[in-house]
Amino acid sequence: MTIRFFFDGVSFQLENKRKISNWLKRVAADEGKKTGDLNYVFVSDEIILDINKKYLNHDYCTDIITFDNSTGDTASGEMYISIDTVKANAIDYCVDFCDELLRVMLHGILHMCGHKDETAEEQEQMRDTENKYLRMYLN
Question: Rounded to two decimals, what is the model's pTM?
């Protein structure tokens, strides 16, 4: 029942770990889930590309790869987040890096709570849900 943060190949430190952990637990609870072991691993583009190739057969960088080990009503798993891609996306979307990082972290746990984003409709629902929970964090 722990949320942990790891850093591999990046000179990045996450601020407000306790506040973020509490927020992610509230999100899971609002989605009807308990939090089990959740590991957020912050990596470089190089590392996420290797993971994407090895486990998903995708030859491109992405902001997050989620390995969902959830069972029943408990959200558990590992999320690999590319700090490089999050930074680039923040610039592309004209948003603050910290806000984009929170969105990506939230995106991972929402997948573990059963949210999908394969269709346009699911993507819109995911974005609406992300916006709701981002407002919760910021208030």
Answer: 0.95
